[in-house]
Amino acid sequence: MVDRSKLRIAINTGGGDAPGLNAVVRATTLSALNLGWEVYGIERGYGGFLGEGEIVSLTRESVAGITHLGGTILGTTNRQNPFAWPRPRADGSIEHVDRSGEVFQSFRDHRFDALIAIGGDGSLRIAHELAERGLPVVGVPKTIDNDISHTNLTFGFLTAMETATEAIDKLHSTAESHERVLVVEVMGRHAGWIALFAGVAGSADVILIPEIPYRIERVCDKIREREAAGRRFSIVVAAEGARPVGGEPVVKEAAGPGRSVRYGGIAERLAQEIAERTGKETRSLALGHLQRGGSPNAYDRLIALRFGAAAVQFVRDGRFGCMVALEPPHVKAVPLREVVQSRKLVPVDGDVVVTARALGISFGD
After folding, report:
1. So which residues are the catalytic ones?
2. Using CA atoms, how far apart are residues 322 and 335, in angstroms rounded to an integer?
3. Arch. (CATH architecture) of 8-155+296-328
4. What is the CATH number of domain 159-293+347-358?
5. Confidence of residue 262 (pLDDT cuts 50, 70, 90)
């Protein structure tokens, strides 16, 4: 039987960075140290297990003063799945190999008792697969897209939403001054939470999200309607995964072994179509990684700290193969096998969508 008063635990951060990662690392480290445990950080996702990063001791000193910092002190990557690890061939091409066995061996060699894996959809799928093969894992949900199922919120989302809202606020003045249409592209490959929340909060005129396919003529109708009413500018907010009825999202990079589809370019395409159909001077802007950067806001810090402390509690209780989830007012454990079965999408009849329509915002449908 494992002596849970003397555990050695590992922490890693995977996928795209998000505001609040360092807060989770700090909460996890301090909570474990206060139980008398040893804590180690795995650098670069799973790279530290595989010789492509370090395994570092985490102490009170090493996590001091990091709650408010963006990024992650452990580093992260979204291109290194241990089940499909990129390896260069002699001819310069890349093959993808299964190195999960090496992860298990490294885990055993370092005498770890548990892994706390902090990440989004892809990282949690990896954690689930490792758990299914016997690794004692607790997952912590992280993504600015807020599309992880079975949790009310993921940390990083609210900060990203505030960043996007602030950008939309600033675009209003220049759009009105030049009587232009401005199209803003925000992150959201499969779910439009950032576009919806920031668009409503930022008084957008059109919001386009993956859950509601749009018709470009309906988008232009809204712009013409505003023009006729003397409002000679418009703000369009589009999630990167938004798509027209019967069409597909704009893709920058196709999927391949060990990597997912990279979306982007919807704002530029929309701006061109709007200009051609309405005659309005139209500009586009993709906020991109601005949404990932910077300090987490107060609520994201609080969620991250709660998640980190809860993850340690679940390890203490031997509740492996689960994910920390927020179900206000409580934090609970949800089996990873349930989490990975679906994404949390924007409900098209939800109250925020209903509110937006009541305000006169168009979804292009």
Report:
1. 145
2. 4
3. 3-Layer(aba) Sandwich (3.40)
4. 3.40.50.460
5. confident
